[in-house]
Automatic annotation (TrEMBL):
The keyword Cytoplasm applies. It comes from the Archaea. InterPro entries: Ammonium/urea_transptr (IPR029020), Ammonium_transpt_CS (IPR018047), N-reg_PII (IPR002187), N-reg_PII-like_a/b (IPR011322), N-reg_PII/ATP_PRibTrfase_C (IPR015867), N-reg_PII_CS (IPR017918), NH4_transpt_AmtB-like_dom (IPR024041). The modification O-UMP-tyrosine is found at Y505. Involved in the uptake of ammonium/ammonia (NH(4)(+)/NH(3)). Transport is electrogenic. Residues 22-425 form the Ammonium transporter AmtB-like domain. It is found in: Membrane. This is Ammonium transporter. Pfam families: Ammonium_transp, P-II.
Amino acid sequence: MEPTLLQTEIDPQVIADGVNLVWVLVATFLIFFMHAGFAMLEAGQVRSKNVANQLTKNLLTWSVGVTVFFLIGAAISGVVGGDGFSLTATAENPNAWVDWLFGAVFAMTAATIVSGAVAGRAKLRAYVGYTVVLAAVIYPVVAGMGWGTEGPLTGAGMLGDMLDGVGFHDFAGGMIVHGMGGIAGLTAAWILGPRMDRYNDDGSVNVIPGHSLTFAVLGTLVLAFGWYGFNVGTAASVFTVTEAGELVLGDFATVGRVALTTTLAMACGAIGAGLVAWLKTDKVDTLYVANGLLAGLVGITAIPDTTAWWGALLVGLLAGAQLPIVFGFVESNLKIDDVCAVFPVHGSAGILGTLMFPFVAAPGEVGNIGTAFAAQLTGVVVITVWTVAATAIVFGAFKAVGQARVSPEHERDGLDVSEHGVDTYPEFGQPDVATDGGSDEIIRTDGGEPNDGQIKMVTAIVRPDRLGEIKQSLAEAGAPSLTVTNVSGRGSQPAKKGQWRGEEYTVDLHQKVKIECVVADIPAQEVVDAIREGAETGEPGDGKIFVMPVEGATQIRTGKTGPDAV
């Protein structure tokens, strides 16, 4: 049989190297795109006055963190993992930087998890400072211990020596990345303390809803999309070349299992969280379903390469089910204000999945169950102790010098203004205050009988959505000039019940707009009639109109006074 063109002219190693490089880069780009998901998810769960701050933290997590990881973090990880100290910048083969980048996106995922826990009150400088330390030391130590070729937690390291060569198993970072990030976030939130008004004097909890459930859900789906790069992409070798020169599948020999278990756990995480939320509140809470989907993904991330299909279903269900329970415990019992639920989503779910490794494995994937569990438990404990201690030291140091948390005034105003000088939604909830009612021509007439020669102030509290009709009615009545203010109030309109992450709260102050119209040559009653015509819907909450005398008026530009000023 004559040799084929492929066998005679193409080196199989070249094909293997090229395909493997491309695959790792594609997976890396998917994982990088998870930062868009984190940004949307976290921004949706904070108040509108803190959105820009949350987005800025996500941008700086990547920018600052990846730079520090390049300069020193990867080298520290090598030392801990037994590979020696080698700066990334000195690599002789440029393609070695592909492996570095793949590790960097994992490191930055761990870093950005923390930002959601400390939202709404952490100073930007404290968070960025912690990101520097995490990227330089905290995460590299964890990654080196668990993923280094001879790290303390690997089969070739200290733990392997103790347990007959059985080391800590974490395929794609269920504990090394997500568990670590969730534990770090919980520790940082504990050091900082809760947001203002989160807890009453008696310890009861006040619900502080985020500003956009839409953002939170879309961010969740973006994260789920990128997660395939996280788990499936960790099967980094598509091809390998045997000693005989044959091109065979590498890590891809079992990649189908990774894809399947990742998908099943994701789906069951959402189901588990939704079921528990329903049992607790008689409602399927949307945010819990979204967070549960992520918890299912976190739960399987350490073990998708070894887990049986039924095990993925079980891990996902348990990871999702624990979410509302753990969040309630952290919130009500520990009194820790974990804004974006990073610990139950990433921390406890990551720990759960990691510890379930020997119990849900497919046949032949695990040897002695007791030994394997001991290795997993040891790894979880070591990573937890290191992460809590290191995070507490960093945030504790910032707190000791008064640089960990913004001032009460800045927290009230919102971090967007105090930390960045911007308003994310400059027109959020703001009515269109154009005074011409939408017409090109301003109509002014004497409108009939004057107000006994007096100036009248007509004030109306109305529904915001009726403002356009009211402006048009006023313009047609000859009174297009008005002042509009956003207000909230309570009257005959019934209170409503809201729910945020399974907790119910009462909305008894409804958003309204206050319209003020000062008239002299137009009868006040005509203005009242115009406002009523535009504002009426026939439902409770349409508002009220008040007419009051005005003692005097002065036009600033001309100095005219009295009715002439109006």
